[in-house]
Amino acid sequence: MSKAEPFVTRVAFVASDRPEAQEARARLAERYGDAPEDEAQVVVALGGDGFMLETLHGHLADGAAIYGMNRGSVGFLMNEYSEDDLLERIDAAERAVIHPLRMHATDAAGQVHDALAFNEVSLLRQTRQTAKLRISIDGKVRLAELFCDGALVSTPAGSTAYNLSAHGPIIPLDARVLALTPISAFRPRRWRGALLPHSSKVTFEILEADKRPVSAVADNYEVRDVAQVDIAEDREIGLTMLFDAGRSLEERVLAEQFSG
């Protein structure tokens, strides 16, 4: 029996600046062709997790499906790199639809900055002074004062990234919750964060902002000297990531909970 023709035939290759990623892009484009990104059925991203986030942000307008292959240092969101049977792998891939967080950050001058984050929105102290935050959920103050290095709100897809390094929980993709995690909490020292319904609106007020300046970072977009940051999931936006059969994002998140 002859081998079935792949359904996906038009792919676009994009790569990070790393030499190994650029070299892979050249070889793959020669082998499979390289469609313009706006005409491709699938965009293949070559790099690490940081480049995957850049690629997702770059395709917010067209919603193209993204298939990543690891040519970087961290590749939790990427598939293993192989140049063989690429179109067949993409055809058989499992799909994960992810929704970003939307950040509204008001700086000390009153200017509002709007940004999206597929992993997390993090607040970080800018100086040697500990940050002092007030945290409200859906308009109700839940923590009047948090002294810390910072805090973050993470999506399920991002829960294995910075959130996990800050000792936050790993969240299954279909759990419909967000993680609110402190970074090096000093007072209350025993507070370890919270799991919130995905429909929650989280508000951080920066207390004593002149003395204790704080920056807000949505994935790779940073706002300095913030006064207030509002964060909520944007369900109107959903981007599709593709993962090799048997290695779905759901499976990776589950397996991470049993890793050493």
Q: How much strand content do the residues show?
A: 35-45%
Number of spatially distinct domains: 2
Overall morphology: elongated
CATH superfamily of the largest domain: Probable inorganic polyphosphate/atp-NAD kinase, domain 2
Task: Please report the distance between the alpha carbons of the first and last residues.
Answer: 44 Å
* CATH class term of the largest domain: Mainly Beta
The helix tally amounts to 5
Reading the helices and strands in chain order gives EHEHEHEEEEEEEHEEEEEEEH
Question: If you average the pLDDT, what whole number results?
Answer: 93
- If you consult CATH, what is the topology of the largest domain? Tumour Suppressor Smad4
Task: Give the biggest beta sheet.
Answer: 6 strands, antiparallel
Structure description:
With 260 residues, the protein is of the alpha+beta class. The protein folds into two domains: 11-98 and 238-256, Rossmann fold (3-Layer(aba) Sandwich); 101-233, Tumour Suppressor Smad4 (Sandwich). It contains five helices and 17 strands. It has a six-stranded antiparallel sheet, with no helix packed on it. Helix 1 links the parallel strand 1 (11-15) and strand 2. The protein is elongated and about 60 Å long. The protein starts with 10 loop residues before the first strand and ends with a helix. The model has no long low-confidence stretch (mean pLDDT 93).
